[in-house]
Amino acid sequence: MDVRSLGYVVIESTDPQKWLEFGTDIIGLMVAPAMPQDGNVYLKMDERPFRFAIVKGEQDRLLCSGLELRSQDDFEDAKLELKAAGVPFTVESDELAQARKVKGIMSLADPSGNNLELYWGAELDFGKFISPKGISGFETGLNGDMGFGHAVLPAAKLKETHAFYTDVLGFGDSDYMHFKFNPDPADPGQGLHFMHCNNPRHHSLALYEDTQNPVGCVHLMVETLETDEVGYCLDRVEAAGIPIVSTLGRHTNDRMLSFYMATPGGFALEFGTGGLQLDWEHFTPTVTTLPSLWGHKFQMPDG
């Protein structure tokens, strides 16, 4: 299968207005002008009609992640590959495809229960991105072909879930880390797989060995084009009293300069710049023992 990017996320929220304020006033995204006035919140960052859809619901969580396929032929091939692998899926209605601004869409879940949507034919509205905070742009590639950023998803069944993404969906390995949080030699620790799809971004998806994650997400990442925007955003976060989940730092594996903040969804958002873009034909996957060159002191917010 030839997944091209992480195209969008759909977030369930008990109070979408909080995401509207967070998305525009803190992240610097704009309200998507081409999306319907249907009570949901849609946030735009590039040539695509939206990248974040926040829908009213009974809990706060990541509802699903949208993965982009190249064409209708690839979409039809994906159905055959999923059937051959014994993976259940549902071809969704034209109404849902229209709501997502795509030509065709199917829904499925990975072995750890993370909801996915595979789609083809994403629209480009070429509406000018005008950030309410003056951000010049986000790194999403040509016509948005690198996707909006990356997602780190919880994987209670890490081995099976990693195999699903690599063997069935066709993701490639970028890096692997393993964490132990106490000195007990019997502690098995937790694994973290970083994976890329068919674009230069170091990873569009990562899987963290997490058995207790009620919000369906560890963190999402957006990447701005200018270093100073990371600092400006950090100032906005501090002024608004939003918990900082991780201090400013630079990662080892993708060289991202970033910090992490709490979101209204109960998971974190990484706001960064300068992530590696790689030639996968000549890349050798790595195993990294140090997550950051400097900084990135993680601290979970109270409550």
Automatic annotation (TrEMBL):
Annotated ranges, domain VOC: 5-121, 147-274
A GO molecular-function annotation: ferrous iron binding
Keyword GTP-binding: no
CC cofactor: Fe(2+)
Keywords: Aromatic hydrocarbons catabolism, Dioxygenase, Iron, Metal-binding, Oxidoreductase
InterPro entries for the chain: Glyas_Bleomycin-R_OHBP_Dase, Glyas_Fos-R_dOase_dom, GlyoxalaseI/FosfomycinResist, VOC_core, Xdiol_ring_cleave_dOase_1/2
UniProt name for this protein: VOC family protein
Cited Pfam families: BphC_D1 (PF22632), Glyoxalase (PF00903)
Domain of life: Bacteria
Keyword Metal-binding: yes
Assigned protein family: Belongs to the extradiol ring-cleavage dioxygenase family.
